[in-house]
Structure formats: structure tokens, C-alpha cells
């Protein structure tokens, strides 16, 4: 979708429209304008909102931009950048909280993806989560273990199992995101998964799967047959090649 600054020059009062018809009826640029509150010198708030969306590729691009990047955008600055980033994060947390209230069942990769996508798919960094399950695959608790990428962090099987045991999980699932858009598990993902799976057997709280979330797709390390075996490099490369689309990733 394109957001033309020219189209919004005639807009008047997105806040008034929100009060009149409800925020759910507003367009993306109008919602951004309400969050920003005001434009800058020579740049009305509606035009600023439309320009931001155009520069970042729409709402998904804004969601991936951090407060630093937003603050450097023309017409924003630190205060408006922080306000917009906070509104986006609040939306993420609302979706996340709603998913916990619903106590979803997570019997397969599709269910895990449905839970994780609103929380992880648009992030510009990797996060690793433990989903603690009850005996019927219901979600007991979801806890973030690490942020910034598995390979570059001091993450161990102990970190994961401590959370699973603390939450009295009957079993658990690991889930993390790939900001690159490629859901194929890396060698580090496979090795880490193997380590956790082996340790989980010892404590009697099995790891059922490790799901990798990308912006449009996902993969299950268990479905790919990579759990519980040390994969030869050639076999690992073959599995990842099957996951990659023919064309642009993402």
C-alpha cells in the first residue's frame, strides 16, 4: 500500500474522527497521526504520518523500527519517536496478553506459529521463548529466555530447564524468530535444540519442539527430523534448501 502525503493534506482532525467513528475505522496514517499528536514546522501531522509509513514500508516496517531509528526520522525527534515506538510495543503486549488469557492449546507447529507470530514476527532482533505446557498441550506460561540471538548470547540448556521446571510444565516448546525472513534453522539452532532435548529427558520434562518464526513462514525442527541426532553438514544444508523459497526471502 502506498501512503501519499498529498492525499492527506485535506484531512482535518484525526482525533475527532476517532471520537466520531472509533479508532478501528481509521486508516493507518490516521492512527499514526493520532499517536504523534502534532506535526512539525511546515509539516502537518497527517502528512508526517503518511510520509513515515511510506518511508518504512507500512505498518510492518514501523513495527520493526526501533525508537532510535524512528527518532532520526525527519519531523519526529526523540519525544515523538519514543511515543510511536511505545504505542507499537503496547499493541504487541496487548496481543500477547490476550493470547495468554485465552489459554491456547499448542499441539503442533501451526498452533505455535499462530501464538508466536504477533509477538515475534516483526521484531528486528532474535528472541528465544519457552512455552510451558500442561498435560493436554495447554499453555501454562510463556517466558522469554534471551534476546539478541541465540548464538551470540550466554544461553544454556540450564536456562531453559530452570524456567520449565519453575512453571511446573509437563512438557515445553522452544520458539524463536529469524528477522532475516528465512525460517530455516541454522547449525547453531540445531545444536542448541539437541542439547536442550537431551537435558530435558534427564529431568523428565520433555521438549516437544523448537519452532522458528519468520515474517511469513515458520519451521519446526522436530518436523524436519533434526531433533535428537547430530546432523551431517550436507544433510543440514539439504534440509535448509528445502525451506528456502525460489526468489526473495521474507
Which secondary structure elements does this structure contain, and how are they paired or packed?
Elements: H1 14-21, H2 28-36, H3 45-56, H4 59-64, H5 67-71, H6 77-101, H7 109-120, E1 127-133, E2 139-147, H8 157-166, E3 171-177, H9 187-203, E4 207-213, E5 218-220, H10 233-243
Parallel strand pairs: 3-4
Antiparallel strand pairs: 1-2, 1-3, 4-5
Poorly predicted residue ranges: 5-11, 231-236, 242-250
Q: Averaging pLDDT over every residue, what do you get?
A: 82
Order of helices and strands: HHHHHHHEEHEHEEH
The percentage of residues in β strands lies in 5-15%
Structural class: alpha+beta
Largest sheet geometry = 5 strands, mixed
CATH architecture title of the largest domain? 3-Layer(aba) Sandwich
Radius of gyration: 21 Å
Quickly list its features.
single chain, 250 residues, alpha+beta, DNA polymerase, domain 1, Cytidine Deaminase, domain 2, 2 domains, five-stranded mixed β-sheet, 5 strands, 46% helix, 13% strand, disordered C terminus
Quick structural gist:
Helix content is 46%, strand content 13%.
Description:
With 250 residues, the protein is α+β, with helices and mostly antiparallel strands. Helix content is 46%, strand content 13%. The protein has 10 helices and 5 strands. It has helices at 14-21, 28-36, 45-56, 59-64, 67-71, 77-101, 109-120, 157-166, 187-203, 233-243, and strands spanning 127-133, 139-147, 171-177, 207-213, 218-220. A 5-stranded mixed sheet has the order 2-1-3-4-5, sandwiched between helices.
Amino acid at each position: 500500500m502506498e501512503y501519499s502525503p498529498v492525499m492527506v493534506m485535506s484531512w482535518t482532525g484525526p482525533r475527532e474522527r476517532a471520537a466520531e467513528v472509533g479508532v478501528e475505522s481509521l486508516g493507518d496514517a490516521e492512527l499514526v497521526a493520532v499517536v504523534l499528536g502534532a506535526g512539525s514546522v511546515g509539516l502537518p501531522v497527517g502528512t508526517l504520518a503518511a510520509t513515515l509509513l511510506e518511508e518504512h514500508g507500512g505498518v510492518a516496517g514501523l513495527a520493526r523500527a526501533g525508537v532510535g531509528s524512528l527518532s532520526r526520522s525527519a519531523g519526529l525527534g526523540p519525544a515523538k519517536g519514543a511515543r510511536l515506538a511505545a504505542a507499537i510495543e503496547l499493541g504487541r503486549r496487548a496481543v500477547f496478553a490476550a493470547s495468554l488469557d485465552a489459554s491456547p492449546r499448542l499441539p503442533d507447529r501451526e498452533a505455535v506459529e499462530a501464538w508466536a507470530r504477533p509477538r515475534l514476527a516483526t521484531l528486528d532482533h532474535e528472541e528465544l521463548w519457552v512455552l510451558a505446557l500442561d498435560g493436554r498441550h495447554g499453555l501454562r506460561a510463556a517466558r522469554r529466555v534471551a534476546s539478541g540471538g541465540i548464538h551470540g548470547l550466554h544461553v544454556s540448556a540450564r536456562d531453559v530447564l530452570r524456567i520449565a521446571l519453575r512453571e511446573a510444565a509437563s512438557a515445553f516448546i522452544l520458539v524463536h524468530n529469524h528477522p532475516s525472513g528465512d525460517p530455516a534453522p541454522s547449525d547453531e539452532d540445531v545444536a542448541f535444540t539437541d542439547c536442550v532435548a537431551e537435558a530435558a529427558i534427564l529431568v523428565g520434562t520433555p521438549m516437544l519442539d523448537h519452532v522458528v518464526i519468520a515474517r511469513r513462514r515458520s519451521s519446526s525442527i522436530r518436523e524436519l527430523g533434526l531433533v535428537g541426532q547430530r546432523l551431517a553438514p550436507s544433510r543440514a544444508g539439504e534440509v535448509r534448501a528445502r525451506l528456502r523459497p525460489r526468489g526473495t526471502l521474507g
